[in-house]
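Standup notes
- HV: blocked on the assembly model, inputs below
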Amino acid sequence: MAETAVESSNELQQEKKASKLAAISKFRELGLLAFIILLCIVVQIKNPSFMTLGNLTDMITNTAILSILALGMMLVLITRGIDLSIGATLALSGMLVAQTVSVYSGLHPLLAILMGIGIGTVCGVTIGFLVSKIGILPIIATLAMMNIFRGMTYTISDGQWISSYQMSESFVSIATSSILGINTLVFIAIIIYIIAFYFINHTRTGRQIYAVGSNPESAKVSGINQTKILVIVYSIMGGLAGLSGVLWVSKFASAQGDTASGFELTVIAACILGGVSIAGGSGKISGVILGAVLLGIMNNALPLMNVSPFWQSAIQGAIILFAVIVNALVKRGVDRNNLLRRKI
Amino acid sequence: MSDYVLELKGITKEFPGVRALDNVDFKLKPGQIHALMGENGAGKSTFIKVITGVHAPNEGEMFLNGERVEFSNPNDAQEKGIAAIYQHVTSYPDLSVTENIFMGHERIQKFTGRILWKEMHEEAKKILRSLGSSIDPKSEMGALSVAQQQIVEIAKAISTKAKIIIMDEPTAALTSRESEELYKITENLRDQGASIIFISHRFEDMYRLASQVTVLRDSKYIGSWGIEEISNEDLIIAMVGREINQVFPERKGEIGEKLLEVEGLGKAGYFADVSFTLHKGEILGLTGLVGAGRTEVCQSLFGIMPYDKGSIVLNGEKVKIQSPKEAIRLGIGYLPEDRQKQGLVLQWSIGRNISLSALSAIGNKGWLRDKKEFAIAKELAEKVHVKANSIFDLVSSLSGGNQQKVAVAKLLTAELDIIILDEPTKGVDVGAKSAIYEIINELASQGYGIIMISSEMPEVIGMSDRIAVMRAGRIVKILNRAIATQEAILEASMTDSTEKNAG
């Protein structure tokens, strides 16, 4: 009897420790938030112009596109995939829409946006098909499509830029106008986040995305259609990239062959900072917002603090590394605890 | 109305190259706990997957309450009230307990398709309480212990209103106290009218719960008995009752001095208290059910998975092995089970594969000396009788048995005293098997000490000088060749014996 008492008190201790670790992983977002607030305070002390309304609006507007893309990337990462093509999809959609606008200057901005979403969705469906039906690894399929989309962008533009004077005023004003007092870009991002929150947390399809990434084998046993889920996920990603193309061109008032080149990596970085696991299965909207915001703040704040631009990306890299290491340590602790609880 | 809730007749399932089920019959009475038993690879898991609609049988019929049914996917079976709790908990570690319970049959609002979280959380809580568990339905599945996850899986089966519940080795990872709780839950389910198929390797599970037992062996149906009708011995015979008609090559050479002494080796969560000795020229068979910790022990000896308790004495010297490199330096070689993944580079030639782990020996200031490399490779390839035109043939062009020989030759480039073979004849045809046996014998007669992990009983008995049987992370018995029988081994690996090993 004494033995079982010792055993159960041991078990109790281990359980307590495990729940503590679980709590840490749960409050990861809070940690990130704390870090962001801390960063803001430090920056504010160094440069009081940081917390001005003008600068904050600027910063949020600049983060809008990144956060839209990060949302789509989160879904892709949750299914254990990755999408390297979004920068190129964005450029292609931006270029096609800009060309259209430069010819039909009367095109309604809303139609331009829908057109961008349509182009992006077609790109996304193609990738979804390659990944799910043909079974090409996501990193390979999207790498190939990245080059194809980028090549198409250069071809249709003939290497030429489309500049702001070729675009209609109404088109350029997408990025500068505001709805209900909120900048249109930010407004669109908020709408998308609300829809996504509902979709991810309150519909079966949304939850199945997590199931497929968390345990594909078991998803099969539960009768989940993985092909469908993958196509949906890459289509959403494509659609969001297409939308971002329109917003990007409008914001920077130019469409170029190399628009957003390499931006996919920034998007992936935002996801990882926000706690999305590359191994699939986990990631939260709140985390992704924070991840995108953190990157946005760093882009804005480091120059304000007179940090040399050469150092900026190195600092960003170090912060990503730090976040991932903390994550790995917590996970290792949880796994080890689970092993210790097995009795042999 | 039929007497049986579930009846399967003449079920045959073929996978490319193997017949996983061969004309299997099965009958389940309402309100019965029915044990399904058999050795590793007897076909139990495949059989379950046929019932749950994961695999469609090639032949045979299935009846539910006397009505013929055909399942094309797991959803069909679920709708008919069949639920399975699989051997390896098939949960979603990143999702909440509630979601794990309701995955595939979520409560949703009609028209909008919105998930009714509140209702689901409450329902989940209710089911968990009814199972006597206090798990919070909102907690993350991955943070629970194996026993708790098991309970969630049972809750899942209940939530589908399943009438037939299949449990595939649910107690394998549980402590005895946790098992006892599971027994009670299982009995409650039965009393509430569910019929249960219970797969287990533990006799105590079967005697505690089941009223009927059906035995499968080598993919075939052997028989079905009431639990009082059959004795322990007869059951074991039913499970292993094949005759050993394969001839094993004669052994030459003598068993020499003590080579290795392992004392109280342990690794948290995998194995504990493992002690044995190995002599020069001896073949030590290491057997037990899959998951008993055999591979883990050997990987610890080889430094892949460093042990955290116990000691290893090698040639009279106490050593600490922390990495494969150290193990090789000390003269221990390991041939992994999955040679395609861990042992060989299939796209390379035989010669380059053999020399791969000895490159520093045949290199000169960073340059490889081709002539020396090929000479060594050729010599070793001949030593183990690899059948190929030349050592420049690609390994991928060889048969499984010949690939295995190349893997052995690769080991021999290092100066070894001890060779660990993990399932050396797995996936190899009969002819190649005896060739591999001859090589193993030859190595033993040259004075190597050999540890051979194997699940195939005839092979273990035919080849080994002594046989160590593992069960749930411990060595439960060490048998001499003279007294080793299939029955004795199976009994040791399945029964909860308190006997300490005397090896």
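- HV (later): unblocked. Residues 51-343 of chain A form a domain with the ABC transporter involved in vitamin B12 uptake, BtuC fold (CATH 1.10.3470). Chain A has 14 helices and four strands.
- Next: hand off to the docking folks.
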